[in-house]
Design brief:
Oligomer: single chain
Strand content: under 5%
Distance between the termini: 48 Å
Number of strands: 0
Largest sheet: none
Number of helices: 11
Structural class: mainly alpha
Radius of gyration: 19 Å
Order of helices and strands: HHHHHHHHHHH
Length: 241
């Protein structure tokens, strides 16, 4: 039925993402820069990059991250108006607060990042995202829920860009371009799949099933991050974060 069609579409998206990754392949060298070993970097095929286990961890991380970011922004209005009785104009305001703190957070972390190891504050961002979603799980505590929107926006703000910048350190310079193409594609698939899955849960159960579902995603995100920072390249001391 419809579930099988949905699963088939998602599988097709993954196949397209991996097979037709525009950043993978011999002919896709970087023409704008002259890295130290351009010929070696551009010669790595996408399938070789996919043989690296850490790449799959990164793909899953970005898949989940994309889903969390958009699920909160997409479902907050409906959750607060239809399930918690918040006036529509107030709900619109707080959804804008979520996206506003998300934007402001990128500037904030850009300022403070030189004073803290990226591993430390990225771990903190993942933990704060989870904590803010916990606050979202109390339907009778409107204030906590609205605070959760503001906090989660700030918490998620630096994650995507910073993890992208660290990909060469996780997977190696020779695989970085391919890996970035894969993880960006995975984030797009997560944006398509996970908010839709939240909608299915809302239909089957209630809108209040959405926050626990997002919390589960944040717990998975934290675990995947720990696997990333413990990857062999980082643990070997080849690169300091």
């Amino acid at each position: 039925g419809s579930a099988a069609v949905f699963a088939g579409v998602i599988m097709l998206l993954f196949i397209v993402m991996f097979v037709f990754n525009p950043m993978a392949g011999d002919e896709q060298g970087d023409d704008e820069e002259e890295p130290k070993d351009t010929s070696e970097e551009s010669s790595v095929r996408g399938v070789e990059t996919l043989r690296q286990p850490v790449v799959w961890v990164a793909i899953l991380f970005f898949f989940v991250y994309g889903g969390i970011e958009v699920s909160i922004g997409q479902w907050a209005f409906t959750l607060f108006t239809e399930s918690r009785g918040l006036a529509e104009e107030n709900a619109r305001f707080w959804v804008s607060i979520y996206w506003g703190t998300f934007t402001a957070g990128r500037f904030l972390f850009g300022v403070i990042s030189p004073w803290l190891p990226r591993k430390t504050w990225l771990r903190g961002c993942c933990a704060l995202t989870a904590a803010s979603v916990v606050l979202l799980m109390f339907p009778n505590q409107m204030g906590l829920g609205l605070l959760a929107l503001a906090l989660s926006g700030v918490a998620q703000a630096p994650i995507f860009a910073t993890l992208i910048s660290l990909m060469p350190r996780f997977v190696g310079e020779e695989h970085a371009s391919n890996a970035i193409g894969y993880v960006v594609g995975a984030a797009g698939v997560g944006i398509a799949v996970l908010p839709s899955t939240a909608g299915v849960l809302a239909e089957q159960f209630s809108l209040e099933a959405i926050p626990p579902f997002i919390l589960l995603q944040t717990i998975v995100l934290m675990g995947l991050f720990e696997v990333l920072v413990r990857s062999q390249r980082v643990r070997s001391g080849a690169v300091a974060m």
